[in-house]
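Batch manifest, entry 17 of 40.
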Amino acid sequence: MNVAVLSWALVPLIMQKTACVAVMLVAGFFLIKWVVALAKAAMLKTCRGNPLVPGLLASILSKALWVVLLIMVAAYLKIDTTPLVAALSVSGFVIGFACQESLANLAAGVMIAMNEPFTVGDSVTVAGVTGVIHEVTMMATVVRDEAGNRVVVPNKAAWGGVITNRTKKLD
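Output type: structure tokens
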């Protein structure tokens, strides 16, 4: 009989916690959308309209804010978040170490997108490849060489070497 009384006594507390978690998640959802939209708009202004970098950074910001929100909800529910934060830290280190080359290409892609040493259609020599820029992504630059071949140059090699742009002349 005492067990039934105890369990019914917890119902208002459980309902209150559930309502608070729901409000936190809904408010967090809208707050994250708002913060990401503001950050993306500000980044678009500084990146001269190039959507690659702001889109990537906005996506990373959104995911990071969601992790923070979920950790806050777990802390509100009195769940020990220390092991979760430690696991996320170790996972980030392991993933970063395993994806070192890809992350280097990504970082170089961000630098290329922000500094724009070349754009699509420019006649260049990049990482020893001479041709016309066909496509620039966050991971690689595609050059159509003089023989008409499609050459994919990793951004780390493109940004880390000498770039000769015959289209853009110094004033």
